[in-house]
Amino acid sequence: MEPWVRVILLSAVSLFLFLGIAIGVDIWQFRNASEAATAEIISLRREMGRTEDVNGRSRSTVSYYPTIRFVSSQGLQYEVETPQALLKPIAEVGDRVPIRYITGRQGQVRLDHGALHDWLIAGSITAVSLIFFLITLIFTRRKVPEI
User: How much is the pTM?
Assistant: First the structure.
């Protein structure tokens, strides 16, 4: 195999491997610096989207971003819209949801779907990328001629 093909394949796979590791580091840093709490949903912002499949059929999607109210461990009350949409089933105004927040930073709030959910995305991307990296190394290795 040509050396430039190997470089391109290894670069592409390495990029996804780096992405998985970067997501994992972000999750790890946030979970270590944050505290758990329970918040009340005070409003929901609805965001419409549209996706199209390979056959040209379009499908509408709806995401709901909650504005929540919670009290920090210092006794301060915050109201903030979360950057993530609610997962199914959709909660309603007045429901309580688990969150994680960084003390002193009002905008650093995420819905807490649990450690397994948080690590699933980063772990999946990293594991699949690592497997493809090893496969690429094996199938693109240089053949050494026998003497």
Answer: 0.70
